[in-house]
Amino acid sequence: MRRALQAIMISAFASPVLAEAPSFQLPIDCELGETCFIQNYVDTDPSAAHRDFTCGPLSYDGHKGTDVRLISLADMEAGVAVLAAAAGTVTATRDGMADIASTAPNAPDLEGRDCGNGLVIDHGDGWETQYCHMKNGSLSVSNGEKVAAGATLGEVGLSGRTEFPHIHMSIRRAGKVVDPFAPEPRAACGPSDDSLWADTPEYVGGGLMQAGFASDIPEFDAIKAGLASPPTLPADAGALVMWGFAFGTQEGDRMRFRIDGPMGWSHEQEVEFDKSQAQLFRASGRRKPPEGWASGSYKGRITLMRGDAVLGEEVLSVTIAR
Question: Which stretch is the leader sequence (predicted)?
Fold first, then answer.
């Protein structure tokens, strides 16, 4: 009975694809799993709860698109192109909104402007794509302009209602949202044979985006801004800390830390998460010993675990020199 009810709910919420759809490409110039990650998918749950097309949690209530995120503000500032997912004609644009997290104390009023800077492309036969949260001043197309698939539209930004730099792309047909990963009504969760992607991205249910060493526990804002891991630390550093920055974590996931240094020195800790979060960081390490740090190379490994599965792993090193 529960399975049958779930099938009815999925069928009722999904948008029917009534005509042959365009083939869509990823709307961003980045390398998935390395320099960018899919943070959120279309919400396929019609209730106040949420779920993605795999029945996983990478969405939120009422979310109507695919969010491809950058790791840091530094990546955004360096410039990452937003690309047309398919050929078409630009029918609407907006630019001029500041790049600022919507949770910041000085964030602007977003009434009716949640999308931030962005645009809409008409692909014909009722199909259109909308692109949101683009960088202020970056839009390079105008209303009425025809664009080819893969054409640069502007850059990824932090405008509108968002807490991290990303491009949100919605696909609609006749005004109804279509999930490109699972466009047709169906009873089962998981990958679909009728994906609208030209090259369907692999579903990744969470992962480790970045890791680094530091001489103290860093501020989360510094990590989100693009904190770099130093190649060296002084022998009188107050602590040796390793940190990991992750997305899509669930309650019960674990982050495992291990550092190995000269003369058999080591540190190991495993931290379990007590709630699910869209993004988080954790840090682990030790304070400086009374005699100071031994000179040499310290090698670190951070592993993000879900049950017995490894969601991500980073291996890094830092040199301590007197």
Answer: 1-19
